Structures are given as C-alpha cells and as structure tokens.
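Researcher: Go.
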Amino acid sequence: MKVLITSARMPFALDMIRKLSAAGHEVHAADDLADAAGSHSKYLSGHVVTASPRADTESFIADVERFCADRGIEVVVPAFEEAFYLATQRERLERTAKLYLAPFATLARLHDKVAFQRLAEGLDLPIPPCVVATSDDELREAIERWPRYFARAAFSRGGVALLTNTGPLAGELRREPPDLTRFSERNGGVFPSQRVYRIIDGRDVAAHGDRTMPVWGDAFKSAYGGSGESAIQERIDALVKHLESLQVKASN
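Model: Structure:
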C-alpha cells in the first residue's frame, strides 16, 4: 500500500514511517517545512513540501491532492493538527486517496474540551471536577473553588494558553506563541534580521519573551563548552537565516 504521512516533523510521524515501511508499505511524507526530520528518512520512497495548512489552507489541500494523484497514494495518515483541515475536505480528497482519520464533527467534539468533558461524563468515566467559565467573573469564581487548579481554553493546543497555580508555571498565563512565518509581513515586508538576532541571543534584551524561551546566547555558550562569541554568533546567524527562509511571501 502507498501511504502518505503528513506533518513529517513530528517524532511519532517518523515512528510511523519506520513501522509502515518495515511492514512492507511504500511510505511518502509531507510537511510545510523543507527540513522536517521525517521527510528525510531513509525509509521513504518520496516526500513533498506543501503550503502551510494554517496559513494557506487551500494551497495545502491542493498540494496534498496533487501529490497523491501523481504518486498513486492510497491512504493519507495525518500526524498532527492538519487532520482538521484535511477532514473538512474529505469528499474532495477521497476521490484520490482514503483519509485515515475521523469525520470533522468527531474531531471537533473531541478537541472541544467542554464537549469532551460532557462525553466522558455521559460514559461514566472518572474525570477531575470541571467547571466551564465564559467570562472573567466566572473564571475568578471558578479558580477560588479549589486550592489547586488548571485552566485551559475550550479550544487550545499543546502546552500553550493555560492558567494554573500549581507547578513551575504557577502565576503565569501562557499564550499562543507568535506566528514565526510573519515577521516580514508585520515589518512592512522586510525581515527584521537584527531584531530577531537580538531576541534569539537574549543577553542584551531586558524582557526576554515570557521566560519559556531560553536565552540562547547563554545556552549555546554552555552547551558548547564556553564557545567564543564568533561561534555563538555563527549558530544564531544560522537560526536567523532559517527563520527568514520560512517567511510567508506577500501576495500581489
């Protein structure tokens, strides 16, 4: 069977690539990052760089559709949140290849933490006490009910957009990270290389983000045995150039 794994950057995508290949399948990979680790696995028969599912959904869908048709892909297996975008175009895409994912309505129900809570309660599954807050006043009232709490937006992802009074993140409101592909767009079409360099280095920036981002100047110096400034600069320059290569092209 010819299989396409999307979001090849994910560690478990690489694991799927290896296992499906070992099982005798012809495996291909897709990602909007050209240097995604899974896209360069020796177990692949091919890979494609697509448009961003989030920033350019229509082009992403078209890229997947075209690659499946060109390579005779039989099954598409999403490895991350692009599953939501693919699910909305199931009828279109399944003219070419089968999607190995649930219908969009099911995915949305499971992703919505309020709906998921109600589903678990309806199945009599044990879950922590929960309350839904829809305003600042309701949120304040809710967090006063327990000595320890952990709050998330009903639709949120990964380890972002959380509020807690427990553990190392206590007292911090973590927000969605900025879109790193739109530095140029937010700077009048010019990539702000010097500013990005200073932010990554971090050693001369008074407020270095939200403390979840390392001060990479110090981190590189420590990780590479007290490397000199020229070596640290070379590594940060490489990161800056990589970020510049990811910038969304302005549409005419």
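Model: Residues 8 and 38 are 5 Å apart (CA to CA).
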